[in-house]
Amino acid sequence: MKRTTALKPQVIENTDPVAPTPRRPVRSRARPLVVDAHFEPHHHPWAQVAYCASGLIQVTVADGDTETTFILPPSRAVWIPPGARHAVTVLEATELRTVYLDPTATPEGWRGCRVLVVSNLLRELIHALEASQPSARDDALITLTLFEITHADTQALGVPLPRDKRLRTLCEAVLRDPGKRATLSEWAVDIGASERTVARLFRTGLATSFQQWRQQAILAHALPMLARGTPISQVAAASGYASDSAFSAMFKSAMGHSPSHFQNKNVL
């Protein structure tokens, strides 16, 4: 695939002209971006919903002792709470749409990131807000957008990386070779630890099991391949599955759609 020249790194400043305010607590902005365009790590005082109308983006968010990477196709968005440090990289040419929410509009209890399933209505609301001006219609759009965001289905679709050096070494090894068919015991040997120790590190450091974390890593690996039109058989093999059917069953259970649903990168 021919790759285009990357854009210079950009940082979203707090003085962004579309910054939300208590009077207009929800703002939306659209930007076409080429492959490899990226925003360097930054943060701002408002919350953000990052969503691509087409293409594929990677969003990495720092959260305490962990750093989580989300790979987002057009039917998914990530909620980023106020003050969270994050970076965005374009994996496939995209129409990036960001929704900014004033802290006064942040849903109660939404302190961490979460992946939202973007409904057809939410997609159209985000688009409508881009050109909206202060008016009764704008107020109605904001109210409905907030309702759709807070009531959207959520999905576990992120790959957290820990600060613990031993566990991070193991996680990075899995990410480099997600198709390797190795047990936790075999991965543990590579970092000089026991299976029991590594299992405990996953529970205490990432609040998940190795099997659950590895599934997220496989999904993050598979989504860009599918978006580029790679045959499902090749994606399954590269993900460590002996059969297409086993991979497809795992994928559909996790994503709610079959792998073929994501082979068209403009799918909604």
Please outline what is shown here.
By secondary structure, the chain is α+β, with helices and mostly antiparallel strands. Helices cover 35% and strands 24% of the residues. The protein is globular and about 60 Å long.
Kindly describe this structure.
This protein starts with 25 loop residues before the first strand and ends in a 13-residue tail after the last helix. It contains eight helices and eleven strands. It has helices at 120-130, 136-150, 165-176, 184-190, 195-206, 210-227, 232-238, 244-255, and strands at residues 26-33, 38-42, 47-52, 56-63, 66-72, 76-80, 86-92, 94-101, 114-117, 154-155, 159-162. Residues 1-15 have low confidence and may be disordered. Helix 4 crosses helix 5 (195-206) and helix 7 (232-238) packs across helix 8. The protein is globular and about 60 Å long. The chain has 268 residues and is of the alpha+beta class. The strands form two sheets. A six-stranded antiparallel sheet has the order 1-8-3-6-9-10, covered by helices on one side. A five-stranded antiparallel sheet has the order 2-7-4-5-11. Strand 4 and strand 5 form a beta hairpin. The protein folds into two domains: 26-155, Sandwich (Jelly Rolls), CATH 2.60.120.280; 164-262, Orthogonal Bundle (Arc Repressor Mutant, subunit A).
